[in-house]
Write a structure and sequence with these properties.
mainly alpha, transmembrane helix, membrane, transmembrane
């Protein structure tokens, strides 16, 4: 017999698994973008100093913004899991 508690547990497990997949894809894409910016800044350094400086600045801002966004999403996810589920 399926009880409400079993359904709630299955729903939470599903939410955690789907969220983890999105987190991994997002982290990999931001990491790839960061690497491309660093390589581009190194290549452009000798000819275009200002453009290289802008790319380095973006390369510094991206990890900071990703960390802030990750913390906001974690807080939001925790609040959502604390709410009671109505059926």
């Amino acid at each position: 017999m399926i009880t409400r508690s079993k359904l709630v547990e299955q729903l939470r497990d599903y939410q955690v698994r789907s969220q983890n997949k999105r987190d991994v894809v997002g982290a990999l894409s931001w990491g790839l973008l960061f690497c491309l910016l660093v390589i581009a800044a190194y290549v452009l350094y000798f000819r275009f100093h200002k453009l290289s400086a802008v790319l380095i600045f973006l390369g510094i801002l991206i990890p900071i913004s990703v960390r802030i966004r990750h913390r906001k999403l974690a807080r939001k996810r925790e609040r959502r899991l604390l709410l009671p589920l109505s059926m």
